[in-house]
């Protein structure tokens, strides 16, 4: 199964696992732009602790399923 990544960032394995396990989240993920996917990935990768990263993945799932297309209150990926 191929899952789209971001513009600059590759899809991390932990996020990929969640996307594979939730068809609705995967559909929402594939519906957003590559730049938006990049923002979610960068926001997740920016977490300094494992528990923060896990919470961000959970929030990504929740937000995507509720129609949000980008992380809230995120200044944006500095890598693009």
Describe the structure.
- With 80 residues, the chain is an all-alpha fold.
- The chain has four helices and no strands.
- The longest helix is centred in the C-terminal third of the chain and has 16 residues, at 50-65.
- It is globular, with a radius of gyration of 11 Å.
- The model has no long low-confidence stretch (mean pLDDT 94).
Tally the beta strands.
Answer: 0
Largest pleated sheet: none
Query: What is the average per-residue confidence, as pLDDT, rounded to a whole number?
Result: 94
* Secondary-structure class: mainly alpha
Taking all Cα atoms into account, the compactness measure Rg is 11 Å
Note the overall shape: globular
Q: Report the uncertain regions.
A: none
Beta percentage is: under 5%
> How many angstroms separate the termini?
26 Å
What's the layout of helices and strands?
Blueprint: H1 13-21, H2 23-31, H3 34-45, H4 50-65
Helix pairs in contact: 1-2, 2-4, 3-4
Provide a concise account of the structure shown.
The protein is an all-alpha fold and 80 residues long. The protein has helices spanning 13-21, 23-31, 34-45, 50-65.
